[in-house]
Amino acid sequence: MLLGLDPVLCPDLLHALAAMGHGDRIALVDANYPATRGRRLIHLPGIAAPRALQAVLSVLPIDTFITEPCAVMQVVGEPGALPAVVVEMNAALVKHGAKPAASLERHAFYAAAETAYAIVQTGERRFYGNILLTKGVVAPEA
Fold first, then answer.
1. Could you say which of 10, 54, 80, 128 is the most buried, measured as most Cβ atoms within 10 Å of its Cβ?
2. Which residues are catalytic?
């Protein structure tokens, strides 16, 4: 344990977040996600996706240079639907000063996640508990 860090941020996740550069993406995905498609897989068993997102947002700046730095997976057959898990994740984004996530068609989300720096598989059991985050920058001290 470390002072000042959310205990959900395990060593592998902290390393991935610190190693990412501006514009790199990380995917937080649910327990049903085919996470073997990614380059690097980090497991957070038993942790809900919104809780994992809250922990990540406590240390990760979200990109402000692009129009859609965060994206969730669309519900198949209902692209405008907002599952409860997505509503919770959007609330976490807004709480941390980011705008709600855009949505990507399922296979487009898979393709984007495959290029992410890491995939973090949570214990989220609700469907569509998946989100992509693009890392921003930490401004220099004035």
1. 128
2. 22, 63, 110
**CA 36 to mean position of chain CA atoms:** 16
Q: What is the CATH number of the domain that holds 85?
A: 3.40.1650.10
Q: Domain containing 129: what range? A: 16-35+42-134
Packing angle, helices 84-95 and 49-57, rounded to 10: 10
Does any domain span residue 11? no
* pLDDT tens-digit map of 65-116: 999 999 999 999 999 999 999 999 999 999 999 999 999 999 999 999 999 9
Q: How many domains does the chain have?
A: 1
- Residues 45, 123 contacting (CB under 8 angstroms): yes
pTM here is 0.96
